[in-house]
Design brief:
seven-stranded antiparallel sheet, six-stranded mixed sheet, 40% helix
Amino acid sequence: MALKLEPSENGRKRKRKAEGEREEGDVKAPDLEVLEQTIVKLSKNEKLIYQLRDEAIPWACVHGLTMVHDAKVSSMVHAPCTILPAMLSKAHYDKVFEMAPLFNQLIDRVARDSKFLVQHLTGAADEDDFTAKLLNIHRTVQEKGLSQTIFLGLHRNDFMVEAQRGPLQVEWNTIAASFACLSSLVSQLHRFMVERHGRKVSDAYKIEFLPTNQAGQGMAAALAEAHRLHLKHHPPLDDRERVIIMVVQANERNASDQRLLEYELWKTHRLPLLRRTLRELYDHASVTDDKLLTIGVDGKDIKEVSVVYYRAGYVPRDFESQKEWDAMLRVECSNAIKCPCVAYHLAGTKKIQQTLTMPGVLEKFVNKEEAKAIRTCCVNLWGLEENSKECCEVISRAIEKPDDFVLKPQREGGGNNLWGEAMLPLLKGPLERRRSHILMERIRPQCTTGFSMRLGEVKVLKVVSELGIYSVFIGDGESVLLNKAVGHLLRTKPVETCEGGVAAGYAVLDSPLLIPNQIPPSVQK
């Protein structure tokens, strides 16, 4: 069934406003010229910047906008963030927000096409052991038959905005889409800063143009709905507690974001969540004859598991031995609802993203209208697994002008891509070395001035931002049970920085100040 792209009434209102229509009670849009002048003026006012910093840090620490600074002593510091929101086109924000359900349905349809996944990932798997092991788990699950047909997706689709082409997709994240809770807090921090201290800066910052952000609440609600569905289809036979498992990394720096989700699940839905590593799942989890996943310690305090939510398992270092892989396979073979299941994990790989941009491929999963809409957000992507004429030509172009491209492996988590001359050895090397990578046209996002704060230090920098849209999806292969966007993430980094991870130290958390038209050219420069 085709997914209609008709906007909701709220969407139509946002569209009318983006096109400049005024409604009764509307607040006048921010004055762009004043905003530009404000940013320039503030960048030179060191005293005011430090006053704002001294307000932002206590707010962040009191409200949980924090990250682990030293795991050995469990010390926390404020999360890297900006002290004021960044300008972003409202029309661009609305476009990708309203397209989130379409991307969700595309991911679900791709993930349920096992033949497609195997066909297009086998080449990458031949040269990349991590992808190969994921694909082997997928094959094993398919051979045994799915123990659970309900798929849960907590996704984040990331975009950068160019002045002429608008929002362009960087990647979609189907596993461990982080910062939903912290990004919600950054939105609240900026709302506080604008409402309480905005007049110190400029009346051009208007609270009415800060979008609400309930990403954390939305993700918790989706987990709770998946738990409810599991109880419905697998009623408990005794009084054992049924829990949600969050698979985590040891010594996790981003623990606050995860804990906030755990606490939201308990506060709003009264659902217990247990944090476990893959190794702990290997040691203490088991699957019953009727495919129920259970977990305990030394055979005691046995709990049933409804949902397994991965915030780990997306990088090779999470698998120190075969035991971690065995734990993942054990979970996959159970009737617990996985987030993501291995098929969703594979559907989110760079190779699949690239394959879907090839002529005619999108139309296998969505109708022509939907494919056309998706392609407005796509940049050029190339597979490198062949020595075809087209492949050789694009490699030659990349060797000649490497700054116009990005070379991406099948990895998540930041810090893995190759930029500029760093990609040349691989591009000039044999086919076998490059076939697990894809080549991506480099996006040139709009540049502004930002006020980044990390470890108490504020830097005034020329920055670019990456907009992520959080969305949730639940489906059983026949019916869509939940499908909507729930919030956003804005990450801002110095213009000269290539990578964009916050936890990896490249970017800071931000939030958008939505404006009804394009950022003026003087700010884009």
